[in-house]
Amino acid sequence: MKVVIIGAQWGDEGKGKIVDYLAENAKYVVRYSGGPNAGHTIVVDGKQFALHQVPSGILYSDKKVYLGAGMVIDPEKLFKELDMLKENGINWEGRVFISDRAQLILPKYRQMDKDRDSQRKRPIGTTGSGIGIAYSEKSHRDGLRLADLDWEEKMAEFDGEDKEYLDKYKDKLIEMRVDLTKVMWEVRKENILFEGAQGAMLDIDSGTYPYVSSGASCAAGAATGCGIGPHDLDKILGVFKAYQTRVGNGPMPTEFNNESEGELCQYVRDTGREYGVTTGRARRCGYLDLVALRYACRTNSLDGLVLTHLDIYDAMEQIEACVAYDIDGKIVTDFPANVDQMNRAKPILEKFKGWKKPLKEIKSYKKLPKEARDYIEFIEEYTGVPVTIVSVGYERDETFIRSNPWKK
Ligand code: IMO
Ligand code: MG
């Protein structure tokens, strides 16, 4: 059985926690897109881990994890992350593998990424980790893949700092290198969890282009990014927060207004720890945007939604969510491609009663306050997709499942 977890918003939805949670029943965990731009936080017994490139299944000592062909890999940061794991008692050796078709990020790409973004008329606000450069080298067909590391003619094209850098990591990378398409075929009968990075709205094709990342963070990316066919993805779950955040620039019609909703924004940001794991930037916060969420459901064939951070709204008297946009006086419920239109979109909000109780201790859907269930059921009705898992805290046991994703 193959289960895909994607972010259904603009990233930072809590994918790391959910992948870690579901990994218990998987044998293999595969990250399929992005690179060190991702920041996946997992909390186990009060201890927090921030993962950027290593798949979130690594914390279970019996899981093997794979970095897919859809990824762009920064070896220096990857080995730092692996060292961090080792220092925290996580023995990863013999359990971390990288697709021979994955692309590599050279250190100079980071500065090139920053320079390019600062020279843009309308900067994207990238993470500065060289992601866009690595993916464009790939598209130009000038990229460097793990498979090339022992191709002498190709490697002879690198000199100076690049050569020194590659010489440093080459052998270690070759040791972890596998033909992932072959592995995926051999283990096809096992439970495999595919971990998405970024989110549906940051996908290069269906996201809010050009304010997107450069990889295929959509569900289909799990197939292309690991070398399997789309038929083989048995179940696709989209993780979303009870509210919404975005890092960097680009349209977000439901963003809290700095003046009139400044207090609410600060409350959500601080309670939800909405500061970037990768860059430390304060995230932009806003109301849940159901127009965008339904679009994400449709463009990714979501079988189920996973709601996280519901507890952040515990103290609220009233909750609001966006059900349509007003664009130049026209009511719009289909997500527009045009960024200029999106910049003018004003959210039309639906109000819900708050539950005013802590949800942390709740262990089943039935025990949720009626107001919380009403909010969830409205989301299900609007999107046409069931909310199958709900998270009410950072720890593994602060999660409850309404329908087991590992059952067909
Ligand atoms: P996870 O996996 C949130 C955003 C950046 C920027 C845009 C492009 O933790 O959810 P890039 O460096 O990728 O070229 O930046 O995409 N971005 C993310 N935002 N979570 C992420 O990953 C992100 N990865 C990229 O902030 O706006
Ligand atoms: Mg992040």
From TrEMBL:
Mg(2+) binds at D12, G39. This is Adenylosuccinate synthetase. GTP binds at residues 11-17, 39-41, 283, 309-311, 391-393. It comes from Treponema rectale. GO terms for molecular function: adenylosuccinate synthase activity; GTP binding; magnesium ion binding. Pfam families: Adenylsucc_synt. The active site is at D12 (proton acceptor), H40 (proton donor). It is an enzyme of class 6 (ligase).
